[in-house]
């Protein structure tokens, strides 16, 4: 999901995650209005990572990841063997086993991002909704997180909706781009359909140049 600041990206993903109430219309999951799902059953299907992450004070990575199991046993429920297995698998999938017993607050930005992603994986939902997960990361960690999310989507068959500002990262890793403008859908399609000078000018209000990436042939934009 791309678009200028204030285009409605974060609002839309919050609506999809049931973090904000609809003022009209409806959003459906598996043919059922999301308002009609009970909280735990919805969480078994949809996991949401907000743009502004809550504090993880005095929590180890393993403890934070364990909170992703609330949909299955309640937030303060006793961990079962299945919970422990899900946590271990999430650590393995995100390559964060070595951080499992470290305090989250002591980790780098990229490491914390992978721990929060592991928490979503422990939730074992079919869909991940990620609101600007790259915002506080340098370019190396941005690429690292996008590569990881892309691989997990492929390996686990997950549906992922991500709000992202970097149009080139979106073009490189995302299968389908949705561009919003002033709270409305402007255009959608694959990278070739969206990342071209006319579409980018309509989205961002600035003329950008586009060339194919020398290795992937995906479009790359620049000013």
TrEMBL record:
This is Ferrichrome transport ATP-binding protein fhuC. GO terms for cellular component: plasma membrane. Residues 2-207 form the ABC transporter domain. It is a peripheral membrane protein. InterPro entries: AAA+_ATPase, ABC_transporter-like_ATP-bd, ABC_transporter-like_CS, P-loop_NTPase, Siderophore_ABC-ATPase. Belongs to the ABC transporter superfamily. Pfam families: ABC_tran. GO terms for biological process: iron ion transport. Keywords: ATP-binding, Cell membrane, Ion transport, Iron, Iron transport, Membrane, Nucleotide-binding, Transport. GO terms for molecular function: ATP binding; ATP hydrolysis activity. It is found in: Cell membrane. The keyword Transport applies. It comes from Haemophilus influenzae R3021.
């Amino acid at each position: 999901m791309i678009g200028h600041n204030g285009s409605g990206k974060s609002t839309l993903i919050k609506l999809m995650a049931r973090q904000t109430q609809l003022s009209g219309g409806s959003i459906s999951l598996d043919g059922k209005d999301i308002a009609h799902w009970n909280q735990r059953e919805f969480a078994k299907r949809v996991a949401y990572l907000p743009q502004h992450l809550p504090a993880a004070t005095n929590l180890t990575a393993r403890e934070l990841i364990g909170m992703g199991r609330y949909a299955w046993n309640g937030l303060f429920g006793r961990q079962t063997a299945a919970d422990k297995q899900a946590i271990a698998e999430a650590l393995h999938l995100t390559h964060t086993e070595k951080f499992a017993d470290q305090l989250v607050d002591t980790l780098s930005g990229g490491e914390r991002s992978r721990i929060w992603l592991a928490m979503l994986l422990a939730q074992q939902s079919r869909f991940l909704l990620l609101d600007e997960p790259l915002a506080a990361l340098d370019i190396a960690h941005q690429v690292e997180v996008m590569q990881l999310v892309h691989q997990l989507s492929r390996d686990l068959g997950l549906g992922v909706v991500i709000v992202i500002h970097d149009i080139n990262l979106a073009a490189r890793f995302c299968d389908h781009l949705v561009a919003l403008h002033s709270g409305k859908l402007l255009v959608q399609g694959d990278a070739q359909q969206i990342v071209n000078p006319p579409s980018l000018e309509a989205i961002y209000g600035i003329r950008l140049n586009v060339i194919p990436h020398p290795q992937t042939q995906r479009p790359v934009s620049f000013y």
